[in-house]
Amino acid sequence: WLGRPAIDQRARNRSAAAHGGRDVVMEYFGHPFSSYTWKGEIALIEKGAAYQFRNVDPSEPDNGAVLAAHSPSGKFPILIDGDRTLF
Question: Is the dihedral of CA 65, 54, 24, 78 positive or negative?
């Protein structure tokens, strides 16, 4: 199981789809191999929250730029819900 993210894309899609196609407001920034990211994402899925996962990785520099703008320490995960950011 090493190298496989604990939360796969199907779970993320089910969470977003459960909200009837509404626009996803929350954005969750993290890396799929981070256990800290998993912990927050498990809670989002368990609660059925609609969110968009944003991979923080050098291959996706736009996500890294948003993270840097919201996180003073540059650490993840962060959850952006409208004008609120949770670390």
Answer: negative
Given a cut of 50, whether residue 2 has pLDDT beyond it is no
SS3 59: coil
User: What is the pTM (predicted TM-score) of this model?
Assistant: 0.74
For 79, half-sphere exposure in the C-beta direction (CA atoms, 13 angstrom radius) is 16
What is the distance, to the nearest Å, from the Cα of residue 83 to the centroid of all Cα atoms in its chain? 16
How is residue 64 annotated by DSSP?
H
Preceding amide of 77 cis, omega within 30: yes
Distance CA 19, CA 1 (A): 31
